[in-house]
Design a protein that fits this description.
This protein is α+β, with helices and mostly antiparallel strands. It folds into two domains: 228 residues, 2-Layer Sandwich (Cytochrome Bc1 Complex, Chain A, domain 1), CATH 3.30.830.10; 179 residues, Cytochrome Bc1 Complex, Chain A, domain 1. The chain is built from 15 helices and 17 strands. The strands form four sheets. It has a seven-stranded mixed β-sheet, sandwiched between helices. A five-stranded mixed β-sheet has the order 13-17-14-16-15, sandwiched between helices. Helix 1 packs across helix 7. It is globular, with a radius of gyration of 22 Å. 44% of the residues are buried.
């Protein structure tokens, strides 16, 4: 077990890689009654095409999300009730790049941790239970399909990307999940739910040595080779479509616009690019930017407008979304502001303030057990040490942001997705 210390942020982290390849990290928070454990699997909605044992495999869309639902089944019953009996609050989620299972509790921590680790390493899928879950997930998919905010974002991804699987919904479709069987789930479990493809992160007033011992005791002793993932051919920077339009039962048009970015590698460079992208988006049209004020005062956007940088394994973009009677005007204003910044640059003081504010938000997030564990695991899968973020912020200069905006905010990389009222 190794102790890592981060004096710039006042954090410490115990780290160990078990013999089976699982990474275990413990962030001590002395004096807190609450304890939090988070197991992340490097397997998300985009991991549907891969090679295993020399064979190409294509799984149905939505399989990672379906598997997340079924992992709570154990031979002796559903894990939800077992956690509740131990005073814990469990939950799970599937994102484009990750599946995660977690719980919080104030007592019976060791028993809850054993249950969590046993649950994520025990495949128990019967044809009957898999079929029963299909109806539940289909209802969930229908709910997403009725959400204008969900559809406008998914339409944007499909407009921007030609082959990358981010263009497909995380939950899949009613048709795609109809192809999922108990055998499908077993195959995905064997391929990706290997200890070497998982990270356990725990925070709270816990004994790091005990956490390591429990993980070593409960998880499998061996691990298998991991599949080679396939996200399709390298993407061109020009979107597939410049515009998409959908009509739904809503009262006001909603939109999502995006600018395609070059993919970046792994490690600390990926973290640095994320910081550059976030600051660039804020300078362009964040709440403190001159353009945001003009758009807001003219009524083109409202307080629900948001902008940011996103990156999911070779799919990178700057995106903005909100409600507006004239989404085209919003996009045109952003393009004009991008041109202006390319010619004239931006105020150095605005850069300093936004960089300081972004770093401050990251520091405040250290008070959230959920944020700490999620970010540690996500950055670990990308080969980066999350607690080194202050060094990454310090390395970002105005010219990095200027270069990013000049390269990215242009008509050739833009797509606009709109959902309008039916009437």
């Amino acid at each position: 077990m190794k102790l890592l210390e981060y004096p710039r942020i006042g954090e410490r982290c115990y780290e160990r890689r078990l013999a089976n390849g699982m990474s275990v990290l413990v962030v001590p928070k002395r004096g807190f009654a609450r304890k939090y454990a988070f197991v992340a699997v490097d397997f998300g909605a985009i991991d549907t095409a891969f090679r295993v044992n020399g064979k190409s495999v294509r799984m149905p869309d939505g399989v990672a999300h379906y598997l997340e639902h079924k992992m709570f089944d154990l031979p002796e019953g559903n894990a939800d009730g077992m956690f509740a009996a131990l005073g814990a609050s469990p939950n799970a989620f599937t994102s484009y790049a990750m599946t995660a299972y977690h719980f919080s509790c104030t007592e019976h921590f060791a028993e809850n941790l054993r249950l969590l680790l046993r649950m994520v390493t025990t495949p128990y899928f019967t044809p009957e239970s898999v079929e029963k879950e299909r109806g539940i997930i289909t209802q969930e998919i229908r709910m997403y399909e009725d959400s204008a905010e969900q559809r406008v974002t998914e339409d944007l991804f499909a407009a921007l990307f030609k082959e990358h699987p981010i263009r497909v919904s995380i939950a899949g479709t009613a048709e795609s999940i109809g192809q999922i069987t108990a055998q499908t789930l077993h195959d995905c479990f064997r391929a990706f739910y290997q200890p070497s493809n998982m990270v356990l992160c725990v925070t709270g007033d816990v004994d790091a040595q005990e956490v390591m011992a429990i993980a070593e005791e409960v998880t499998p002793k061996e691990t298998a080779d991991l599949p080679e993932r396939d996200y399709g051919a390298a993407e061109e920077m020009q979107p597939v479509k410049a515009r998409t339009l959908r009509r739904m039962e809503i009262s006001m048009p909603t939109f999502a616009l995006g600018f395609k970015c070059e993919p970046v590698g792994k490690g600390m460079e990926a973290m640095r690019r994320e910081i550059i992208g976030d600051i660039a988006a804020e300078i362009l049209v964040g709440e403190s930017s001159p353009l945001y004020q003009r758009l807001y005062e003219s009524g083109l956007i409202d307080g629900g407008f948001s902008v940011g940088y996103e990156s999911v394994k070779d799919a990178c973009l700057v995106s903005a979304n909100g409600d507006s009677d004239d989404p085209e005007a919003v996009l045109n204003a952003i393009l004009l502001e991008g041109e202006r910044i390319a010619r004239e640059g931006f105020e150095p003081d605005l850069f300093r303030r936004l960089k300081k504010s972004a770093l401050g938000r990251r520091m405040r997030d250290l008070d959230s057990f959920e944020s700490i564990c999620y970010r540690i695991c996500a950055y670990r899968f990308d080969g980066a040490d999350y607690f080194s973020f202050p060094e990454s912020y310090a390395s970002v200069a105005p010219e990095d942001v200027q270069r990013f905006l000049t390269q990215t905010i242009c008509p050739a990389r833009a797509a606009l997705s709109v959902v309008r009222p039916k009437k």
